Amino acid sequence: MISYVPVFLIVVTLLILFLFLGVSEVLKKEAEEANRIYSTQVMKLIDQSLSAIDQSIINEIIANHSSIRDFFTPQQEINPLFQTYEASLELNNLVLKHAIIDSIYLYRYSDQAILSKNRFIPLSAFGDKEFLQAQLTGDASLQSWSGSRQYVEFSSQTEPISVITLVRSVILFSGEEGKIVTNVKITALQKILQDLFDSGISYAELVDGEGNVILSRNGSELERAKQKPTEMYLSDIHSPITNWHLRSGVEAGKVYYFISNFSYIWLIIGLSIVALGVIWIVYITRRNYRPVELMINQIQSLSFKISQKLATHTGGNQLSFIENAVENLIEESNKFQQRHEENIVFRKKVFFQEALEGSREITPEQWTDEMIKFERPVKYSGFEVVLFEMDKFTDFKMSYNQKDQYLLKFILCSVIAEVAQNNGVIVWHEWMDHHIVGVLYQYQDEQGENSERLASMMEEVREWVQSNLTFTVTIGIGSLIKEAALIYRSYDDAKQALGYKSGLGSNRIIAYNDIEMSPKGDMFRHLQPVRTVSQQFRLGNPSWGEELEAFFDELEKTLLSREDVESILNYLIYQMNRELMELSEDYGEIWRNKGLQPINELLQRFDTLREFRGKASLILTETSEHLERIREGRNNRSLLAEVRSYIEANYFDPDLSLNHLSDKFQINSKYVSQLFKEEFGENFVDYLAFVRMEHAKQLLSDTSMSVQDIAGKVGYQHSVSFNRVFKRLTGKTPVVFRSESVK
C-alpha cells in the first residue's frame, strides 16, 4: 500500500507555493497602484508649485496696480527710481512667497534693461543674456517650463546654478512690452523627490518631453537613472502642464520583476499537480484515513480567509498612510521654509549688531561658520566700520511719508554698496538706528587697506547724496582692525568720531584718526562767559548779545564732542533760568514761555552747534524784547534808568550806597531796594558788586595795575574785601583770573 505521507508533503508544499504566488500577485497589483497614486500626488505637488508660480506671475502682469506692470509701462508722474524700487520689492516678495524660486528677472524691450531682485542693469552686462536672446529670437523660445539648464546672473559668478526656467511675455494694451523670466532651483525639486522617496526600496526620476532626465531622487543617481530600462518602472505619470514624466519603481527591480514575471506555466503545472495530488490524497484518504479529508478542507478554508483578510487590510492601510504622509510632509516643509527665511534675515541683523557692539566674542571659526550660513565672503585681512548719519533727521521725517523714507534710505544704501563694489571692497550694511546706517568694509587683502582710498570713497558718497538727494549725510570713519573679534573697537571709534559733528558741522567726513591727533578743548573755561551772559541778559544790558556771540565764537573754535557741547549748553540754560527766576512773576512767565521752553526743545533736536547758535540767538532776542517791553510799561522806568546810569558813572565811589541814592534822588532807600529786586532780580548791593567786578575784570585783563590799585579804582578801600567779592562772583581770585586772561 502506497503511503499518503509523501503525497501529503508534496501537496502541502505546492499549496504554499500557490499561496505565495497568489499573495505576490495581489501585492504586486497593490504596490503598482499605490506607487501610481503616490507618484500622481508627487507630480501634482510639483505641478501645483510650478502652476502657483506661473499664476502669480500672470496676476502681476494683468493687475492694474501691479508694480511689475508699472515697470514695463512707467507712469510719468511717478519717480522712475521709485517704480524700479517697487518692482524690485515685488520680485523679492515673489521669491519669498515661493520657496523653490531661485531668481526672477524682468526684461524691458524699450531700453533693453534687466531688473532682478539684486540689481538693475542693461542686457549687455547680464550673465544670462545668451539664454534670454535665444528666447527673443524665437529659435529656442519656451511654451512651458524648460529642462535643466545652467544659470549665471552676475558676470563675476564662478559657479552656475542648475535651474528650470519659465519665460512669460508681458502683453499689455500697447502690445508686448517685455519678458518675465522665472528660474526654479533644481535642488529644490530634488529635495522634494528626495524627501518623498527617501528609502532604499523605491526610486524616482523626472524626465522632460524629449526623454532627457531632468533630475533624480539625488544627484548621485542621475547617471544610473539614465541607464534604467523603461520596463523596470512601476509607474510613469505624465504632467499636462510641463509635459514631463515622473517615473518611479522598486529599487531592487531585477528581483521584483523576476518574481512578478514568474512563468504562469509553472503555475499551471503546479495547479495540475495539486489537482492530481488532491485526487490521490482523496483516494488514499478515502481508502485509508477518512479524517485526512477533513484536515485538508480546513487548511484550504483557513488559507482562503487569511488571503482575503491580508489583501483588504494591506490595501487600506497603504492608501491612508501615503495620503497622510504626503499631507504632513508638505505642511512641515512649508513651515520649515517659512521659518528658515524669516530667521536668516533676523540672524544676519543680530550677528551684525553683536559684532559691532562687542556683545559676542567672535572666533575665526565662528566667523567662517556664520558667513557660510549667510552666503557672504569669508576671507578677510582687515575691517573698518563707517557710520552714515542723516543730517536734520527730524525735518526729514516731517517732509516725507513712511514709504518715501524707506525709498530714500534704500537709495542711500544702494549708493554705498555701488561705490564700494566699483572699488573692489566688500560691504555689509544694516540700519543701527532710524537715522544711522552702519557699514562694515571688509578687505580681502592688505593692498586694499588704504585709508586714502576709503576717504575718497566716502567723499564720493557724500557728494552724490548732496547733489542728488534732498538731505545730506555726515560720515564717521572708525579705525582699521585686523581681527573679526575686534570689529567693535572700530565701531566705537566711528561713534566717537561722529560725536564731534556738533562742533565740526554736518555734511562732512570725520575720521577717528584725525580727531585722535587733534588737541582737545577744555570745556570748563567756557563756564565764566556763561555766567556773564546770563547776568547781562537778566539786567537787560544790551551788551548781552555781544557777550553771547563771543561765547559761541570761542565754543566753535574748540574741538568738543557732542556730549561736551550739550553739557555746556545745558549749563547755559540752567544759569539763565537761575538768573531770571530772581525777577518778578510777570518776567518769569515771559521767560518760561518765550525762552526756556523753546530753547529746551531746540537742545533736544539740534544737529550742529552752528544750527543751535542761530536759532537760540533768535529765541533769546525775542524773549529780551518781551522783557524790555514790560520794563518800559512800568511807571518807574525813567527813575530806574537814572539810578542805573548814576551807578554806572559812580561805581568807583566808596560811599555809594542806598542812603546815598536816597539823598541824591529824594526817594526812600527801601523803595529803591524794592525796585532793584523787582526789575533786576537782585538787591542793590549785589548789582553794585556786579558792576564793579565787570570793570575790575576789564582792568585785570587790559592793564598791569596791582590788585590793590584795581580794588581802589572800583570803589573798595580794602583789597581783602575786593578779593572776597571777586571770588564769590567769578569763582576765581583776581590773580588766577589775570593769569588765565593772559593765556
Task: Please write out the topology.
Layout: H1 4-62, H2 67-72, H3 80-97, E1 101-108, E2 113-116, E3 120-122, H4 129-137, E4 149-151, E5 161-172, E6 175-185, H5 186-196, E7 202-207, E8 213-216, H6 222-227, E9 235-238, E10 245-250, H7 253-260, H8 264-287, H9 291-357, H10 364-373, E11 382-390, H11 393-399, H12 402-422, E12 426-431, E13 436-443, H13 451-468, E14 473-477, H14 487-498, H15 501-504, E15 509-511, H16 512-517, H17 527-539, H18 544-557, H19 562-580, H20 585-605, H21 609-632, H22 637-650, H23 658-665, H24 669-680, H25 684-702, H26 707-713, H27 719-730, H28 734-742
Helix pairs in contact: 1-8, 1-9, 9-14, 12-13, 17-18, 17-19, 18-21, 19-20, 20-21, 23-24
What do you see in this structure?
Strand 5 (161-172) and strand 6 (175-185) form a beta hairpin. Helices cover 62% and strands 12% of the residues. The protein has a six-stranded antiparallel beta sheet. It has a five-stranded mixed beta sheet with strand order 12-13-11-14-15, with helices on both faces. The longest helix is centred in the middle third of the chain and has 67 residues, at 291-357. It has 28 helices and 15 strands. Residues 218-225 and 309-314 have low confidence and may be disordered. It is of the alpha+beta class and 743 residues long. Residues 641-740 form the HTH araC/xylS-type domain. It comes from Paenibacillus germinis. Keywords: DNA-binding, Membrane, Transcription, Transcription regulation, Transmembrane, Transmembrane helix. The chain crosses the membrane at residues 6-27, 264-283. InterPro entries: CdaR_GGDEF, Homeodomain-like_sf, HTH_AraC.
